[in-house]
Amino acid sequence: MNSKRTAFFVSDRTGITAEMLGHSLLTQFDKVHLKEITVPFIDTVDKAHGFVRRVNDTGATDGVRPIVISTLVNTEIAGIVATASALFLDSFEIFIAPLEKELGVKASHAIGRSHSTEDFVNYHHRIEAVNYALSHDDGVSKRNLAESDIILVGVSRCGKTPTCLYLAMQFGIRAANYPLIPEDFSTMQLPAQIKTLRNRLYGLTIKPARLQQIRNERRPGSKYATRDNCEFEIREAEALMRQEGIPYLDATSKSVEELATTILQEAKLERRIY
Amino acid sequence: MNSKRTAFFVSDRTGITAEMLGHSLLTQFDKVHLKEITVPFIDTVDKAHGFVRRVNDTGATDGVRPIVISTLVNTEIAGIVATASALFLDSFEIFIAPLEKELGVKASHAIGRSHSTEDFVNYHHRIEAVNYALSHDDGVSKRNLAESDIILVGVSRCGKTPTCLYLAMQFGIRAANYPLIPEDFSTMQLPAQIKTLRNRLYGLTIKPARLQQIRNERRPGSKYATRDNCEFEIREAEALMRQEGIPYLDATSKSVEELATTILQEAKLERRIY
User: Fold this and answer.
1) In total, how many domains does chain A have?
2) Cβ separation of A274 and B115 shorter than 8 Å?
3) Does residue B143 share a domain with residue B30?
4) Statement to judge: residues A162 and A82 lie in one domain
5) Do A24 and A65 sit in the same domain of this protein?
6) What is the dihedral of CA B66, B70, B72, B75, to 10 degrees?
7) DSSP character for B146?
8) Nearest residue in chain A measured CA to CA from B170
9) Each residue of B24-66: pLDDT tens digit?
10) Given an 8 Å threshold on Cβ–Cβ distance, is A265 in contact with B40?
């Protein structure tokens, strides 16, 4: 029976925090197979009762009580959810009491945005940064490169674009990216557009086998995707980055979050979203 | 003194979970001003000792002990961090014991990926989805629209692009977007390219005042950005969406996360990333 247990991540907002925390907790039990279900926007008493019924029905079907990991803010709603036949782990309530004691004030228990000015500013920075990343993807626009916070360089398909977008979405960083291509290797010079911006360049590299795999999915059977070509481009790009004193990271076994967080830290970028 | 207290979000990985949980906890205390600092990649004993020194130095400077919110997985590292002069809230350890009891197995306490196959699959889905969103942004490519999971429609600058990118990054959803433009309103017909895909269309709308503000930042003083034109486009777009039975959301006061999560839920999309 144990192989069919269900874990719910429940929240009165998007559920993304509950899901990230819950998922990383459960990966610590990798021998146990759990079905993970995120349930966002449980923000009324009615929805809370509906969720309790869903949890109880699931437990009856599974033959074992579910796990519920919660970031519910409202105590009345959390109180209803706590009545479900489940292991209820309330990541919010558990920390509110010690924080109230430490800070000497009561928590508001308000669902939603306490900091609406902050949210507006974050929204603005995020949209600006996403637009910036989109219009400076893959060297598309050479304009306003000087307004970037960082410019990622590296061979085609090494992971520059998603890393730029993550930097923009999560941290509000204006990240451009510029490909290093065979033409640059023949001269062993940086492209003219980014040469004068050397102190904001950051490199990504990748293992040839992985690059070959990615490129082959995109352009199967092309010269571009051959092992020889991938090895050549990576070797030359790394040599050029070393020659120019550009720090670089190997993206092969790193997630987009890890790449973005590492670059934020190493390049000492100042984030615009908190 | 209390106005200069510091909160650290510490992790052996990217710190994004710690920061999201910590930030949402602290917004419950909106009268207290805290400086929030995320400290990722504390994954060795040496780094843990360095972090303890930083916390203690900060407390001495602030004149009040910091708050440390942790998702540290490794018990040795967490044990060192716990020796700092701070309120230490360990969101990981606090739930590991009840989960071990419930699941009847011990947690691995391994930093990093327990599920490396899963991570590889997630990476693949995310990159594919991001590439899809980029190549189907703003109606750019009409090819392969039938391969989309969802197609967002709405007037220019109502928030389609960041929502598509968030759907791609967080959930692995292939989200295209297609603008509704004055030409469509004169015929009150959907663009031909998306007409046959009606059951996967989802609309965004926005309040005229907000749209005017956003468009005016982009093209100051243009007709495109006038209040009259914004009101006209929004009214016509909403009428067209109602006529065609396309569900739509008001993006004005919603964050990108809220829009993406709501669409995921309402359109019953099957996410590819967990």
Assistant:
1) 2
2) no
3) no
4) no
5) yes
6) 70
7) G
8) A16
9) 899 889 888 899 999 999 999 999 999 999 999 999 999 999 9
10) yes
Instruction: Kindly state the DSSP code that residue A199 receives in the 8-state scheme.
Output: G
Query: B28 and A87: CB-CB below 8 Å?
Result: no
Q: Which residues of A touch B32 (CB under 8 A)?
A: 103, 105
Contact A68, A89 (CB under 8 A): yes
Other residues' Cβ atoms within 10 Å of the Cβ of residue A267? 16
The interface pTM score, or ipTM, of the predicted complex is: 0.87
Closest residue in B to A25 (Cα) is B92
How high is the pLDDT of residue A86? Answer: 97
CATH number, position B260 = 3.40.50
For A89, the domain range is 2-103
Q: Which of A62, A99, A206, A211 to mutate to test the interface with B (most CBs of B within 10 A)?
A: A99
Kindly report, residue by residue over A87-106, the tens digit of the pLDDT.
999 988 899 999 999 999 99
Copy the structure tokens of residue A49.
Answer: 């009762």
Count the helices and strands in chain B (H runs, E runs). Answer: 11, 8
Chain B positions touching A3 (Cβ under 8 A) are none
Kindly tell me the burial class for residue B113, based on how many C-beta atoms sit within 10 Å of its own C-beta (0-12, 13-18, 19 or more): middle
Smallest CA–CA separation between A114 and chain B, in Å? Answer: 6
| pLDDT for res B50 | 98
Which stretches of chain A score pLDDT less than 70? 1-3, 112-119
Residue tagged 């693949």 (tokens): B124
- Of residues B256, B35, B168, the one with CA closest to residue A125: B256
**Which one, of B226, B139, B154, B210, lies nearest residue B185 by Cα?**
B154
A140 and A212 in a single domain? The answer is: yes
The Cα A166–Cα A126 span in angstroms is: 10
Examine the domain organization and report whether A163 and A97 are in the same domain: no
